[in-house]
Amino acid sequence: MQIVIDDHRLKPILDKVEAGVRLSYEDGLALFRTPDILALGYMANLVRERLHGSVTYFNVNRHINPTDVCVASCKLCAFGKRSKDPNAYTMSLDQVWEVAGQGWSESITEFHIVGGLHPELTLDWYCQMLRGLKERFPQIHLKAFTMVEIGYFAERTHIGIEETLQRLKDAGVDSMPGGGAEIFSDRVRRIICDHKITGEEWLQTARIAHRLGLHSNCTMLYGHIENEEDRVDHLLKLRGLQDETAGFQTFIPLAFHPDNTALRHIPKTTGFLDIKNIAISRLMLDNIPHIKAYWIMMTPAIAQIAQRFGADDLDGTVVEEKIYHDAGATTSQSMRRGELLRLIRTAGREPVERDTLYRPVTRTESTFTVLV
Ligand code: V47
To answer: pTM for the full model?
Structure first.
């Protein structure tokens, strides 16, 4: 097929994409610098359809955030609170188990569990929480804790990362979400999240998790003070680790939401930048199977279009979302299964419900009546 390219500097990149050749750092920069979003879309869609045909994945999941108390005060975050803050909350174990069961149906296949860095909750507490969830909901996959939380648990428990991950795995963690990666550049991290582990530590924790057989996702936070070089560097570091471990399942570009954060003066992301990040991540991350357009963060409208710009996954029903809504997200906090199906089908894609490990989920009428 003949494609019209407005930005002729993209022609050598198009040739590489068509030939399946890996893109370089310079190619990544050229992609971030071009306004030719249709050429980006064409190339990213080519790769996406090569990998996944017309399928768009989604899952039926529930987010659980046991606490928003956090010892870090990252400028990028509106979720974390000091323990003395009257608005802060910490669930008891019974409350976590109760929340997990609220509106529970056979349809949910995943609990996505992340929280603040709480100065008093112990690793044993978290292990008990996981064991309690497994006892009550044995068939549900527990995707739990960012690399940042793992680093903090290890530090507080005075044990290594590997031992921490092993204890959590033994207690029920099945895989890990991709949060906390932000942008690996030290210069940017010092400003937006100086209390967090470094980029190198994030990567090393993921490396150990993958070695222990835990798959994880990965993310990049964009649309704040990072530049194009920082973004390409971040993507290439993820690609490098994936060459080594093959442990990442999905990449999720996350747009910065400034409301109620210390960086509230930064303008909100644009649809153009959101779509570019989806397309460029599909093109640069040739070894990560899935690119997720997280509808909560990018709005259902943009997430729907993203399915034609490189994304093959829309995430899930979510049920209750706090991190983005504390930072001013105006999207709903949950989406019904039927609405996800509509967003996929009306983009001309074929919906496939997946579990966390991308195995198709088949349903009988009775098991999804609650959520349709
Ligand atoms: O770790 C925090 C980011 C992440 C803000 O793995 C912010 O399947 C924007 O990682 N504006 C949490 N972003 C979300 C996340 C995620 C979401 C969906 C699916 C998966 C997955 C992972 O959100 C945090 C941080 O990187 N974040 N505050 C903010 N104000």
So the answer is: 0.95
